[in-house]
Amino acid sequence: MLPRDPLTALTDAFTTFLFGKAETTRLPVRTSTGQAQAVYLPTAAPGLGDSGVIIGREVYSGKGYIYDPFQLYGQQLPAPHWLVLGESGNGKSALEKTYVLRQLRFRDRQVVVLDAQGEDGVGEWNLIAEKLGITPIRLDPMAALEHSIRLNPLDPAITSTGQLALLRTIIEVAMGRGLDERSGFALKVAHAHVRRDILEEGGNRQPILSDIVERLRHPSRESADAMNVDPEDVRAWGLDVALVLDRLVDGDLRGMFDGPTTIGIDLDAPLIVFDLSHIDRNSIAMPILMAIVGVWLEHTWIRPDRKKRIFLVEEAWHIINSPFVAQLFQRLLKFGRRLGLSFVAVVHHLSDVVDGAAAKEAAAILKMASTRTVYAQKFDEARATGHVLGLPRWAVEIIPTLTPGMAVWDVNGNVQVVKHLITEAERPLVFTDRAMTESSAPPAPSGALAPRDDAVTPAGGSPGEYGEYGGYGDYRDYEAETEARAISFEKRGAG
């Protein structure tokens, strides 16, 4: 034991002489919790700031809850993407709609909604679109061909690499498996020759899927010579691909993808609604359609103009649960922050995506969603959700007890229980069960839009810009292209 400092020893001796003890003994104080609450004041976790969109009220502190991924990005939020999940009837739809309506009050906001829910023969976003003077883009395979709205996977606005990646995704979703090297080669050369033929004709029309089908059925000698094989071999390699695309051209899925993109789609509108309510949710048309819409929007809607864009997808399990579609959207989300894009995915059950065929891709997408909003779930599912999302124990325990309109919000580790508030002006617009209201008559159908057939040279230059037959449409090529576009956006924004 080290010797004590003389001054310290002298001080201790003097204190003991005066008081008899070196330390005093604290006597216990008996009191009630009612009296002690004035001493131990309650504390609440800090909020997210006061800049953004009002969501509602924090349940424990009573403070207003304000959230905006664009305001929070960088300091409190590493990524602007958002996952909303919970069972039906607990307020997910009301949250989506009020969030969009409140975001649109900012001048620099644009929103696209993939509306997969139907009501009264139209999508549930139809009422909001009408209120804003916007006509939803209604995609319906059963509509008369002359009145149907089409999205062309070979739209000239989409780059050559994007077109080829999209064609592969469509085919792989329909086949339920990936393309092998031979089928990929047949598709690649057919696409290259169609683009070259259109350019040789003067570029006065859009290439369409039937052009690809025709070239797959009748491959050129040039494409066969490139691999030192017979044209019949190339034809055999592309037969399955041709059969799948023929289903989109002249089968049960015709009318939505087999022609020039419809003109009249206002890409400058503050809100664009794609009404998918007439699409069978369990058919392959839904993930195919979401893939086409996503890629088409990436090349036409997202621009380097300083606007902040929100892409909201209902029934998002169609995207996340398909490994081929998930790859396309995973790439878009990866560069979303550079593109000024916030992706909002709405699902009912986390098990819909984490236990599916695209579990790896789903995990990557969930990881990029820095904001998670969880509505009421059953106890077992809440426990599984908490495990996957890394929620604290107290939040997991409270999820099964949440009442409609209340949710657990996890914003990059800042976890709060929030009560969503709806104004009287918003209330008539956000109800999803209009059949229970007095005015439930379906609106009159909107007028048809005309097909678009611009005399435009396809974006991305000639078919040989990346090698006439080099590569088979690898997703890595498309990811590199998207990254280059994102970097160019950043440079323009900084200029």
TrEMBL record:
Pfam families: AAA_10. Residues 461-473 have a biased composition (Gly residues). Transmembrane segments: none annotated. It comes from the Bacteria. This is ATP/GTP-binding protein. Residues 436-473 are annotated as: Disordered. PANTHER family: SLR6007 PROTEIN, UNCHARACTERIZED PROTEIN YJGR-RELATED. InterPro entries: P-loop_NTPase, T4SS_component.
